[in-house]
Amino acid sequence: MLLITCPVCNVTADETEFHCGGEAHIKRPASSDPANVSERAQYEYLYVRNNPRGMHREMWLCSRGCGKWFYAMRDTLTLQFHAFYGITDSPPPLPDGNGTGSGS
Ligand SMILES: [Zn+2]
After folding, report:
1. Rounded to two decimals, what is the model's pTM?
2. Residues at Cβ < 5 Å from ligand 1 ion
3. Model pLDDT for residues 7-26, shown as the tens digit of each residue
4. Rounded distance from Cα 17 to ligand 1 centre (Å)
């Protein structure tokens, strides 16, 4: 059982009370006109994800609480969460040598 604390409403509950939205901090292709984005850039934005062995940043939805998205930093080896932070907060630094989690 994984316990998650929503940084928005400060509720701590089992992971079944939340929904994982996958890797955090995925950047949209840099273009003001989506029609000018290459197919490769669109493909990578939509489908290519990091799958690190170690620390990983993820999006989570507080689906039974406040209904807001937030970020979490989790170790994929131990499944332990190391940080929860809001959408507008700066991400905490990753420990050295533990995955990229940056989405780039
Ligand atoms: Zn919440």
Report:
1. 0.82
2. 6, 8-9, 62, 65-66
3. 999 999 999 999 999 999 99
4. 10
